[in-house]
Write a structure and sequence with these properties.
38% helix, 13 helices, Aspartate Aminotransferase, domain 2, 4-stranded antiparallel β-sheet, 7-stranded mixed β-sheet, globular, alpha/beta, Aspartate Aminotransferase, domain 1, 2 domains, binds pyridoxal-5'-phosphate
């Protein structure tokens, strides 16, 4: 955590605790209870017939699908933390991405999508949007203001993800949003890596921020959820699409996520430290060719990360010097604390091989060694380093035996 930003972070930590709290409506209970509700009873026909009036309070409970106090409180705290106008909850991070894109794209439109997006975002664009006659071009995530040269008359959306999935390129978001605004193009950012705490999308000109709440927001590897947070001018199309597609989340998951958001700042600061400590340690290992962590001074995106972000989460990658597949498998399969699993952002450490070259079309990924994506969990750092040391011994031993 950068010292100069500590005051900002403590304000966030406070708001994570005070916003979206409606104890007075729940007998003083600190946590907003779980409302298992579909049908809502109305006192008379008149109020029933006026339940959808546009003047109806946003928080009024009229049908479970449209929200309960538990989901309203979570939506409020998430929007507040990122500096957005409002937010909606959806059943997964991928649903947040698809709802956001479908809110602003129509047949005949064109979208520019960062080459380094989460692979299912690509599949949604290539297979689903293409079927709606919506064209997608991928762009180099390092494009910055030069993205202007890729804009077509039909371009309606620029989609960003920063840092990029697997390879952690940091995008110049303010430069891109400035160009987009000039052309009346909506910008959507997958801000899952940072959460609303470490990257303030709306102060960098973003219109819509999407999150896999499955990761740090819920934070315990037991919830699948997404959130779409909007600037005021982008709110109506997102709210409408969310409604048309019948999206909602289960009340127990909303409760668990709201409970986790209360200590998000503490957890994220710990992941920040663990991730940086591990990345620095790994950068001194002979077996490691590259450490892809924007918090390291020699990372290509470090200057922009330092300028725009309030911290780093615990997810980063390393590229090994070339080794046999057997050697890499001996290392990863034998880890005891770094477990093999895809979905990150929980309390536990993870390590998986990833293959960025399979998902790049506008850029190339031509390193020769294996790329390993690491999630720094909350275990003791000395234990994590001991696990890595043993992993490197297996890697070297297997080479030796061949
Ligand atoms: C950057 C990013 N965005 C979105 C998602 C999708 O989240 P979910 O698994 O909740 O659909 C993921 C999942 O790994 C992700 O890494």
């Amino acid at each position: 955590m950068k010292d100069s930003q500590n005051s900002k972070v403590s304000a966030d930590a406070t708001r994570a605790i005070t916003k979206g709290r409606t104890s007075a409506e729940h007998h003083g209970a600190v946590n907003t209870p779980v409302y298992h509700a579909s049908t809502i009873l109305h006192p008379d026909v008149e109020s029933f017939e006026h339940r959808h009036d546009p003047s109806t309070d946003r928080r009024k409970v009229i049908y479970g699908l449209l929200g309960t106090p538990t989901t309203f409180d979570l939506e409020e705290v998430l929007a507040d933390l990122e500096g957005g106008h409002d937010s909606v909850l959806v059943p997964s991070g991928l649903a947040a991405i698809s709802v956001a894109l479908l809110s602003f794209l129509r047949p005949g439109d064109h979208a520019l999508v960062a080459d380094t997006v989460y692979p299912p975002t690509r599949s949604f664009c290539d297979q689903y949007l293409a079927g709606l006659d919506i064209a997608v071009d991928y762009y180099d995530p390092l494009a910055g203001a030069s993205i202007e040269s890729l804009i077509q008359p039909a371009t309606r959306v620029i989609f960003m993800e920063s840092p990029g999935s697997f390879t952690f390129e940091v995008q110049d978001v303010p430069a891109i949003t400035e160009v987009a605004r000039k052309h009346g193009i909506t910008t959507i950012l997958d801000n899952t890596w940072s959460t609303p705490l470490f990257f303030k999308s709306f102060s960098h000109g973003v219109d819509v921020s999407v999150h896999a709440a499955t990761k740090y927001l819920s934070g315990h590897s037991d919830v699948v959820m997404g959130a779409v947070i909007c600037a005021e001018h982008a709110w109506e199309p997102v709210k409408r699409t969310h409604r048309h597609l019948g999206q909602c989340v289960g009340p127990d998951d909303a409760y668990l996520t709201l409970r986790s958001v209360r200590n998000l700042s503490t957890r994220l600061n710990a992941h920040h430290k663990q991730g940086l400590d591990l990345a620095e340690w790994l950068s001194h290992r002979d077996e490691v060719a590259l450490v892809l962590h924007p918090g390291l001074a020699d990372h290509a995106g470090h200057a922009i990360w330092k300028r725009d972000f309030q911290g780093a989460s615990g997810l980063f990658s390393i590229v090994l010097h070339p080794k046999s597949r057997d050697a890499v498998l001996a290392m990863v399969n034998g880890m005891t604390l770094f477990r093999i699993g895809a979905s990150w952002g929980g309390f536990e450490s993870l390590m998986i091989p990833v293959y960025p070259e399979q998902y790049r079309t506008a850029t190339s990924w031509d390193t020769t060694g294996a790329t390993l994506r690491i999630h720094a969990g909350l275990e003791n750092i000395r234990d994590l380093i001991a696990d890595l040391e043993e992993g490197f011994s297996r890697l070297n031993q297997t080479l030796h035996d061949e």
